Structure formats: C-alpha cells, structure tokens
Amino acid sequence: MSALTRNKVPSAPAGGTAPAAVRRRSRRARVTAIAFALPALALLGALVGYPILFSVGRSLFDASGDRFVGLDNYQEMFTDPASLKAVRNTAIWVVAAPAVLTGVGLVLAVLTEKIRWATAFKLLIFMPMAVSFLAAGITFRLVYDQDPQRGVMNAVAVAVHDAFNDSSAYPGARPRGTDVMKESGNGGFQAVAQAEPGKDVTLGLVGLPPASLPQQARPAAPAQVSDDAVTGVVYLDFVPGGGGTPGAVDPQERGLPQMAVELTKGGEVVATTTTGDDGSFRFPDAGDGPYGVRLPPKNFAEPYTGIDWLGPTLVTPAIIGAYLWIWTGFSMVLIGAGLSSLPRETLEAARMDGASEWQIFRRITVPLLAPVLGVVFVTLVINVMKVFDLVYIIAPGPVQEEANVLALQMWLVSFGGGNNQGLGSAIGVVLLLLVLPVMALNIRRFRRSSR
C-alpha cells in the first residue's frame, strides 16, 4: 500500500453523521445559553419591559385612568408652560454639561500625566463619585447659600468685592427726625439748616447698635469753631440705658468716625472730608456762605451680600456646576484610560520632529482619543437626561419651576401634587424616546470598538 493510500483521511460515513452531531452540539449550546439567560430576561422584563409597556398604555388615559384620551396628554405636555420650561432646561443640560465635562476631563487627564502625584490627584478628583446625589445636593445647597456666613461661594464673592470696594461703615443709620436732616436722594441725608463759617453743625443719627460702632469711636465732640471754617460733629444720638437730650451731644454719646461729609454750595459739592474718631469734621478756609452739609449715600449703603446663586437667573447653571463637581472624576478616569493606551512612539516622533505640546495635543492626542471622547460624551448625555435629585434638592421651592427638568416634571406631575399619572406617563415616554437614539448610538460604538 502506497504512502498516499495509508495517509488518506477516511471519508465521513454515509448519512451525514458528523454534520448531525455538530448540529446537535450547536442546538445544545443554544438551549444552554437560553436557559442561563432566561432568569435575567425574566427579571429584565419585569423591571423594565413591563413598566415601559404599562407607561405607554397609561399615557393614553386621563388622570383617573378610567377614560381613554388618546394623545391628549402628549398635546398637553407640549402646551403646558411648566413642561415646556422643563424641556428647555433639559436641552440646556444636554448641550452644556456633557460638553464641559468631556472637555474638562480631557484637560485633567492630559495634565495628570505630567505631575508627580498623578494617582493621588486622580483619587481626589474621583472621590465625589462616591458621594450620593442626596448628600451632594445638601452640600451644595449650603455652598450656594445667600448668607456669606454660611455659603462658601458668597463668602468668596464678598471677600473679593470688599477687597476692591470699600464697604459701608454705617448701614441702616438714619436721622432721628426731619427737623435736623432730610433725605437727599439715593440714601444720603442733607442738613436742614444752612452752614456758615464760625457756626457748628450738629448731625445726630440713630438706628445703629452701640456695639456695632468702630472700636476707635470716642465720645462725641465738635471741632473747634473758627471764623474761616465750617465745623461740626456726626454722632450716635443715643445714650445706652436711656436718658440724654435728643438733638444735643451728651457726654455718654460717641462720635461716628470715618463718616464721609460733603460741603455743597448751589447744589454742587465744593469740598469733602471725613470725621475723626470723635465724629468731628472741619472744612477749613471756607469762604462766605451759606453752605449745605450732606452725608453721601455711601455711608449708609447695605453691605454687599454676594450673588443670588439660587435665584431664578442662576439656579440652573449653579446646579450644573454641582453636577460637574460630581462627574468630573468619571470623565477624567475614562479619558485617562484611553490616553494610556495611545501609541507612545507616535507622540515621541512628533516631539522629535519639533512639534509643540499644543500641536501634539490638538493634532495627535485628540484625534486618537476621538472614540473614547465620543463614548464619554454620549454616556453623559444619557445621564443628564435623567437628572432629578440634584435639581429637586438644590433648587429652593420658589424657584424650583425655573430649574425644572423633564425627570423632575414627570415626578411632580405624577406624585408631587399633580396626581395626573396619565400626563406623567406621557412625559416618561417622551423622555424614553429621547434617550433611545443616544443609547443606540452608544451600543453601536461599543460594538464597533469590540470588533
């Protein structure tokens, strides 16, 4: 027998036994896979599939669920001002938050590669992800508090403002009556009597707690009268414990130091000065009068209290800022993982060719990271469409409507007082329809990257 005959592979038995065995093994594998997947599919159907189908059906009925109304709930959704505002705010979230987060995460991921303590820095940035949205919302409700003594943001804003602008020394001070001083407009006060050189001007104020006076305040005393100067005193016309003569300087009353005083003639300011520690002021070399004496508004303006972060104008950007604080770590870590897989030889070749770091970042790093950036961006878009708890916790009740989003509107309409689950289901269905295309795009990206 030749070698060719000895090495010849035996042909398959008649009747296709081998293909039948392969088919049996394939069917057995499919049955096994389905058997293992059935519990998960049943759970998925109970927790996801059934609620979706029920919500679609419920959205076609009225608030009581007894009368079929067709698409009336959807029509009401797109005509109701509150729902339209929720759609607008959701659009702002979708446009702003994912783009900013992706950009910030990219910058931080690139920078952390160039610092020594990169791991510790990444841990610090990622740590807010471990904080629940409830705790983060409560924290940022305090951070944005209007009172600078409690709100960190306004404490910083007040500190910066006061560093460049002098704050008012005597907010809330006012004359005891209109017989000595009257309002001069914009919160200032004008002496009723005309001033003349050689005559003293006495200006008493009330409305200030004695404990709030500057430490350097001394017992009130008028400046020394002279024939060529307009002199006077500005003091707190109040004696602790009672007593004293209104409109007259008593020994127990203290002057108001550093009070701005203006000398006017014909309605024009001709001289300015400030009071001493005893409240006295003096305009030397004053010519023939009469003059007017005025305390300008800057003495009495209320102190700067910061920015109304949770007001109708800034509440949505403020809440987005809290969201950025939480999710920046997520974006940075994912982009950092993609950055670590980039071919280093390409980057080194670009540096050897004389490319700057900015050129490498713009022309090499960003294009190579485009798939990762796309996944991060799409994931964040899906996430911001569902944002609920941050808005509900941070936004105060009076302005909650200004910060409203679709997920919160769905809850408010269904359970938060509206008791209209038909309209709430319609909002939920619309929200699902908005999320589905983005989810499909993300799934396509995952499949493409796996191939």
From TrEMBL:
- Annotated signal sequence is none
Per its UniProt record, what CDD domains does this chain match? Answer: TM_PBP2
Q: Where in the cell is it found?
A: Cell membrane
Protein species of origin: Actinacidiphila glaucinigra
Q: Where is the ABC transmembrane type-1 domain?
A: 87-442
Name this polypeptide is given:
Alpha-glucoside transport system permease protein
Note down the stretches annotated as region Disordered. Answer: 1-23
Protein family per UniProt: Belongs to the binding-protein-dependent transport system permease family.
Stated membrane topology is: Multi-pass membrane protein
What biological-process terms (Gene Ontology) are attached? transmembrane transport
Pfam families given in the database record:
BPD_transp_1 (PF00528)
A single cellular component GO annotation: plasma membrane
PROSITE patterns tied to this protein: ABC_TM1
Assigned keywords, A-Z = Cell membrane, Membrane, Transmembrane, Transmembrane helix, Transport
The record's listing under InterPro entries reads:
MetI-like (IPR000515), MetI-like_sf (IPR035906), UgpAE/MalFG_permease (IPR050809)
User: In what ranges is there compositional bias, type Low complexity?
Assistant: 12-21
Regions that span the bilayer = 33-53, 91-111, 123-144, 318-339, 360-382, 422-443
